[in-house]
Amino acid sequence: MCEYPGTKDAAALVVAAARQVAAARADYSADEIDGALFDRLWLAQYDFLTAARREVGLKPLPYEGRRSPVQPASSG
Questions:
Q1: Which domain of life does the protein's organism represent (predicted)?
Q2: What is the rounded distance in angstroms from the CA atom of residue 12 to the CA atom of residue 42?
Q3: Are 14 and 6 in contact (CB under 8 A)?
Q4: pTM of the complete model
Q5: Number of separate domains in the chain
Q6: Is residue 41 assigned to a domain?
Q7: What does the pLDDT look like over 5-63, one tens digit per residue?
Q8: Distance CA 14, CA 75 (A)
Q9: Is residue 24 domain-resident?
Q10: Which residues have CB under 8 Å from 4's CB, separation 6+?
C-alpha cells in the first residue's frame, strides 16, 4: 500500500505509458514508434521511482535529461 497518493498515481502513469507503447508496437516496429511515447514512458518511470524512493526515505535519483535509460544523450 502506498503511503502517498502521488506514488499510486505515478504507478498508474507508468502502466498507462507502457500500454501506449505496447499498443503502438502491435502495428509498428520498435524503430517506427513515435519517440514521444518512449519519452513519456521513461519520464513516468523516473517519476514513479522518485515517488517510491521518497516513501522509503531515499533521495531521488539524478535525472540527466536522457531520452531513455538505454539511449545515451546526444553529444551535439
A1: Bacteria
A2: 13
A3: no
A4: 0.75
A5: 1
A6: yes
A7: 889 999 999 999 999 999 999 999 988 999 999 999 999 999 999 999 999 999 988 87
A8: 28
A9: yes
A10: 51, 54, 55
